[in-house]
Structures are given as structure tokens and as C-alpha cells.
Amino acid sequence: xxxxxxxxxxxxxxxxxxxxxxxxxxxxxxxxxxxxxxxxxxxxxxxxxxxxxxxxxxxxxxxxxxxxxxxxxxxxxxxxxxxxxxxxxxxxxxxxxxxxxxxxxxxxxxxxxxxxxxxxxxxxxxxxxxxxxxxxxxxxxxxxxxxxxxxxxxxxxxxxxxxxxxxxxxxxxxx
Amino acid sequence: xxxxxxxxxxxxxxxxxxxxxxxxxxxxxxxxxxxxxxxxxxxxxxxxxxxxxxxxxxxxxxxxxxxxxxxxxxxxxxxxxxxxxxxxxxxxxxxxxxxxxxxxxxxxxxxxxxxxxxxxxxxxxxxxxxxxxxxxxxxxxxxxxxxxxxxxxxxxxxxxxxxxxxxxxxxxxxxxxxxxxxxxxxxxx
Lengths: 175, 189
What we know:
Chain A is mainly alpha-helical. Chain A has six helices and no strands. Chain A has a domain at 128-172.
């Protein structure tokens, strides 16, 4: 018997070995794609990250908005008090009576509590940024009005000099 | 196939027509063409107050102060105030062509030139008004001098009587226009 066949498939093969080869040959490696049965397939992994991110963003926005609103209302509380003060002065101070500006000795806590029970002022209070913006706009409006009236004054002066009938005065009444 | 094009085409035409009508009714003068003069000017005033800012500003004018109340009433209902004013060190820093886009706008869209003052010393001043029926719906003032160029545009219902009432108050120069003074009336009472 030549053992070389067992090592490198050279030489005379042993019939028993050949028989074993044929039996085991059916189990040899076959190159084909892996087929996973349906029942063994894992469910697709859902990507929840965008939803979680959106939810976190919305929550943060709501939280920030709440904080901003609460700080703003606290900061503006005395101003609102001044704006919504009823015109009639109240002499006798009772717990249910409306507060007046003359009552300077009342504590800030009382003022805030009163404000909470009052109806909202018809003119909403400006935020700090809006107020700055409004101040700038007011200055610009005044500057524009000054320039406009300067020019109209010049026109008026010239028309007065040339036309004693006060032309600009008459035209002025058109509007 | 043809009908599928019809509807968007009609919609597009409607949008364009609406835009043109809106533009025709708008009394705002586009002054962007003057911006390049800022580089040559020694002093520039640029006021841009739109309707939103106007409403914000109006809230800062006090109702208790008589002068401020007058300004508040004047600017109530206005849709904007726009000013561009340039002062130059030397003459000839701008040419007539620079003003042509402004003049072109003032020639159309219902503008009427009310006054044109020509002065060698103080330059030319033109006052334009736009009427909506009997109401003044816009005011434009164009002042051109050798060393100065100013364009003022007030958009919206300008009450010239109220404007005259501002004279001599809050730094606003006296126009010298005679008008009833409420202060005097209250003193007399």
C-alpha cells in the first residue's frame, strides 16, 4: 500500500479510502451564497435617532421659551403695574381693592401677586430687544421729521419771499 | 394637454398683475441707486423706518406729553419713512443721472409736483405729493444743492396739518406756518 495517496493524491489509492472519499464527497464545500431561512431573519433595526433629536430639540425650545417668558414677566412686572393702574385714586386700602401708584410702601411681592389677578394690559409690554429697536426707530423718525420740516421750511421761506399770497399755506390745507 | 398649461398660466398672470397693481399703489420710492454716493459724501443720513418699526416707535411716544402725542398722531397710519441725505465736501460729487431713477419714479404712479423752488444759494427743493382721492397718500421731498443731496419719502396718509403742528417742537424747525395752537387755547380757558 502506498501512503502517498493520503498525503498528495499520488500513487495507487486504497479502495476503502476511495469508498470513504465517495461517501464523504457529498459533504464537501460547495461555493454558493448563504441562504438564511425566513424564520431566522432578524427584524430590521429602526433608526430612532432623528426622532429623538427632534423631540429633544422641541423640548429644549419649550423649556427655553418658558424660562424666557417667566424672566420677562418678572422683569416687566412693575412697568405693567404702572400701565394698568386705574385713573381713580383709592383712599381706603382693602385686600380686594385695586392698587394705585401712590402706594409706594407696598412690597414687590404684593405687586406681582396683584398683577397675576389682573386682566392683561391692552398694549403688550415690549421686550428689551424690541424696546431698543423701538428707541432707534423713534430717533430715526424724529431725524426724518426734522429733515422733512427743514426742507419744507426752506420751501416755505422761498415761496413767501417770491409770492406774498402765501402759496404754501394754501397748499398746506389740501391734505 | 393644453388645459394642463392653462391653469398655471392664468395663476401666473394673476400673480404678475397683482404684483404690478400693488407696486403701482405703493408710494415708496426706491432709493438704492443713490447708495454709491455714500463713499463720496462727508456726511450721510440714511433713515429706513418701515411699518413695523413705525408701530414700535409709536409705542414709545408718550400720550401725556403734548408734543410727543402730536408726533404719535402724525405717524399713526404711516407705512414708512425713508430718507437719504448726502453732504459733500466739494461740488460736483453727483450728477443729474444719479437722480434720474428717483425722478422717473416721481414722474409716474400718481405723483404730483406741488412745489419746485429754485435757489442759487440754497439749491432746488421739489415737493411731491401722491393723492388717494382727496387724501395725501405719500410725500416726497427732493433737495439738490451743489454740496448736498436729500431725498425724503413718507409713505402712507400724511397729514400735513399735523406735520405743521410739529413746528418748533422737539427740535423740529419752525415752518412759520400759521395754525391754531392748542396750548394757547388751554391757557385762555
